[in-house]
Amino acid sequence: MNANAEVVPCDDRLIGHEVTYQFEQFLYREARLLDSERWEDWLALMTDDIHYWMPAIENRRRADKLGSYAPGRGAYFDDNHFDLQRRVARFMQPSAWAEDPPTRHVHVISNVEVCPTETANEYRVHSVFVNYRSRGEADNDLLLGRREDVLRDTEVGLRIARRKIIITQSLLMSKNINTFF
Amino acid sequence: MSHECSGACPRLKRDAASEPLPYLDRLIDLEKGSLSRRVYWDRQIYDQELEKIFARSWLFLAHESQLPNAGDYLTTYMAEDNVIVVRQKDGSIKAFLNTCPHRGNKLNFTDAGHARSFVCNYHGWSFGIDGALRGMAGQQLFEASGMNASEHGLHPVAQVASYKGLVFGNMDPDAPSLTEWLGDFRFYLDVMLDMDGQGTEFVGGCVKSVINCNWKVPVENFIGDIYHALWTHDSAARAMLGGPVAEVYNDPESYHVNFNGHGWEFNLDVVGNAATLGDKEIRKYLYGIQSTVAERLGEFRSKMIGSISSVSVFPNLSFLPGQNTFRVWHPRGPGKIELHTWTIVNRSAPQDIKDRWLKGTMMTFSPSGVFEMDDGENFEFSTRTNAGFVTRQQDLYMGLGLDTQLTDTDLPGNVYRNQVNEANHRAFYQRWADLMGARSWNEVPQRDEASLQESAFDHEEPKVNA
After folding, report:
1. Which positions 330-359 of B are in contact with A (Cβ < 8 Å)?
2. pLDDT tens for each residue of B320-336
3. Is the ipTM reported for this complex over the cut 0.85?
4. Which residues are bridge partners to B395 per DSSP?
5. Does B376 touch chain A (CB under 8 A)?
6. Whole-angstrom Cα distance, residue A126 to residue A151?
7. CA angle A122, A126, A132 (to 5 degrees)
């Protein structure tokens, strides 16, 4: 995508269509939970060791080794499970004034690629999202980005163990991010 | 830190000052405590603000820690003027308009980096980090045209100066010094900037976002409005602390203080703000250094290091002690701002504590932060309602805490009892009106006289017992 682009090979010959279909359905359902504000059900899809990371994007020259984002720099989310719980707890408060009346969300998920990893029950899954949020009369916010997940196949189904979210905006054109991706 | 440009800077032209708005005195009634909604909406007022506030105030440019080496630079804004701030070979810091003086293209398109020179994309004009025009393609043709390259370097910001790590710029060569501008407010700034003599640094880079609000709305919010926290931030407090915001209405030891339009509201609970980060290691750190701070700055100020408090430095710099978010609200027309935020920490803090603070500020006060989430909505609609032609002819209440000024106090500046107050709002608008009404610095009333000597900000190193 830019200075930080890294196209890791994806040997998807090992992944059958049926498996890819399952992953896609999982990601679509996850998006529908977010669109329905079912925050706790969404949180239940995260493993206990989740790292949920959405770095802030900087404009730097291609030659600048620092790149446009990196761990330890600015981030909108750099969360473990406990952090996500707190965010969900805020959404659930009756006094979350900026959520009442509710925001209307749509998450469009596409470009799903499922790649095997060295761990048998873990898959690296790439996808892109389009998020459109509308509030009140005329508040409309559009945000697009790429995601790189590690999805883990567990006894209770697929779970998200790691998510990296790279948005296109360096200057966030919205007053807040009152959703997840 | 200020560079050579006193009074007659040939590279930075300025129009003669325009006439102040004829209806200025009808916008604010400080004795009654009322404010016209027009200040958030009218284009005419905004245009005057660019000239009379922003183009002659000291504006925050950078933290020195962002530019450790010669050639390190960042780009930022002074209101809507884009500038490059760059560390020089002699260690000083200079700032220039981020535009090529040839055909006016933007010069540097990055947020930050390291450069030996700045080269314009349009025709390849090249400038040194000192702003001097070094050369261009077809140089002989320009020379044959009689051009003197020394007259066509980058336009320098008229004055650049630092206070304990914070670098400020001023577009007005006639403006009073930064020292005079901050004055006795430095007594309070030292709580954030000089806890232990090791100074501060920014960690984690800059997060930028757009809020559709007038720039003064968030400045007011940070200069003295703890009052909103109890209601606005109830949801965030319950999420982070497991309960409501502390009842600060009747705290007997809480204050509004201001000087030259800069304001700080606070109590003395040491860690009230820090607690909202929900990280006990940060609280432990603050309690751990409190005695060091007390030795250096005195008992009183040592109780402010992370207490329930908020600060704005006139006109558009704000921060929160304890949460350590540090931010500038850059105006983008009367109804829009670009918010730039950083995390500020003590340089001497352990790396683990710095990391925790970086994470904590993002969790609480960033566009995705659980506190800021509810602020943005308030800021936008406190602005947008004034689109109504009749609505904006109405006045707002700004009289909370009239008659709470303390006269029997040793604290510098104007001091008011109870942090639930609008004294700092009134002081901000007094300063705003003073500048908006002045054609020149001679016409700006000197309301606040500094009482502290320079030595008051020169703290002895704390005595360490081996």
Report:
1. 338, 355, 358-359
2. 999 999 999 999 999 99
3. yes
4. B36
5. yes
6. 10
7. 130
